[in-house]
Design a protein that fits this description.
The complex is a heterodimer of chains A (about 120) and B (about 120). By secondary structure, chain A is an all-beta fold. Chain A has no helices and twelve strands. In chain A, about 35% of the residues are buried. In chain B, a hairpin with a 5-residue loop joins β4 and β5. Classes of the chains: A mainly beta (about 120), B mainly beta (about 120). Chains A and B meet through β5, β6, β10 and β11 of A and β5, β9 and β10 of B.
Chain lengths: ~120, ~120
C-alpha cells in the first residue's frame, strides 16, 4: 500500500489565487512527521513546511500553510496568493518513527500558475 | 537555511566507467545523509542511508557493489556508480540531516548522470 498518496498529477491556478495540493498518508506509527518540498525544473528540492504528528496547530510558513487533519490522515498544502514562480513539482513526504529518519515521498503534483 | 552542495552537477560518461558524486553539507554537520534516485517526472526513490563512520544501509533492490557509498566525515558523503551502464542514467540527489536536532532534511541540487 502507498504510504503517501498525491492524487493530483497536475494542478492549474491563476496568479494571485490560492491553491490546495492534496496529500494523504498511511502509517501506524504514533509519531511521524510530514513535509512538503518544491522541485522546480532545475531539480533542486526546496523545503517548504513541516508538520509533526503531535503538533496542535497547523504549520504555516509565509504563503504556505499545511492543513493537517489527523483523523483523515491528510496533510494538504495551501499556497496563498500564487505567483508565477510557484510553478513547479510539489512533493509530500513522511518520516515515520521507525524509519530512522528516512523519508517516503508521494508521486508529486505539477503546479502551473497562469498569469 | 542549511546548504548542501553536490558535485558534479552534470556528468556524461562512457559505459563501463565509474563515476563519483560528492555531497557536502556546507554550514552544518550531518551525521546522516541520504541518497535518492529520480527518473523524469517521477518521485524520489531512496537508494541508501549513509551514516558517518559506518557502512551505508541500502534499500531493497539497490546493488551495494554497484552503488558504493562512503561517508568519511561529518560534512561529506560520496556515491560511486561503478561500471556504469546506460540504465544508470538518472538524476541523483542527496540530502543531509543536521546532527543534533531538527527533522528537516536539506537537499543538494542534484547530479544528472548520462551514460553513453
Amino acid at each position: 500500500a502507498q504510504k503517501i498518496t498525491q492524487t493530483q498529477p497536475g494542478m492549474f491556478v491563476q496568479e494571485k489565487e490560492a491553491v490546495t495540493l492534496d496529500c494523504t498518508y498511511d502509517t501506524s506509527d504514533p509519531s511521524y512527521g510530514l513535509f512538503w518540498y518544491k522541485q522546480p525544473s532545475s531539480g533542486e528540492m526546496i523545503f517548504l513546511i513541516y508538520q509533526g504528528s503531535y503538533d496542535q496547530q497547523n504549520a504555516t510558513e509565509g504563503r504556505y500553510s499545511l492543513n493537517f487533519q489527523k483523523a483523515r490522515k491528510s496533510a494538504n498544502l495551501v499556497i496563498s496568493a500564487s505567483q508565477l514562480g510557484d510553478s513547479a513539482m510539489y512533493f509530500c513526504a513522511m518520516r515515520e518513527l521507525t524509519s530512522y529518519g528516512k523519508l517516503t515521498f508521494g508521486q508529486g503534483t505539477i503546479l502551473t500558475v497562469h498569469p | 537555511g542549511a546548504v548542501v552542495s553536490q558535485h558534479p552537477s552534470r556528468v556524461i560518461c562512457k559505459s563501463g566507467t565509474s563515476v563519483k558524486i560528492e555531497c557536502r553539507s556546507l554550514d552544518f554537520q550531518a551525521t546522516t545523509m541520504f541518497w535518492y534516485r529520480q527518473f523524469p517526472k517521477q518521485s524520489l526513490m531512496l537508494m541508501a542511508t549513509s551514516n558517518e563512520g559506518s557502512k551505508a544501509t541500502y534499500e531493497q533492490g539497490v546493488e551495494k557493489d554497484k552503488f558504493l557509498i562512503n561517508h568519511a566525515s561529518l560534512t561529506l558523503s560520496t556515491l560511486t556508480v561503478t561500471s556504469a551502464h546506460p540504465e544508470d542514467s538518472s538524476f541523483y540527489i542527496c540530502s543531509a540531516k543536521q546532527a543534533g536536532g531538527g527533522e528537516t532534511q536539506y537537499f543538494g541540487p542534484g547530479t544528472r548522470l548520462l551514460v553513453l
